[in-house]
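Continuing the batch. This is chain 6 of the set; chains 1 through 5 are on the previous pages. Same settings as before, nothing changed between runs. Recording input and output for traceability.
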Amino acid sequence: MTDRAKVRPLARNEIVSRLDDLARLRITVFRAFPYLYDGDMDYERRYLATYLEADGAFVAGAFDGDELVGAATAAPLGMKRSSGSATKLPTTVIGVSP
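Output for chain 6:
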């Protein structure tokens, strides 16, 4: 590993071509304590695809050379997911109108 990973935004075509790498990375990270998540590739591919569908969504990758060693995702609050659900604003969860 080099001294510093290079972090940069991923273009749509790169997200598509690295979907399996991103999915494996999420499974590996979330399998560790305290998450103890036992994910699977099919679910992760579907989940990550929502970042391709949503306006304003963002994916960044951290690279050691050509190897993806980290990632970050962001999406607008209220983004609709392919499951039909949306992220709820904290105020609506407790019954306060924003």
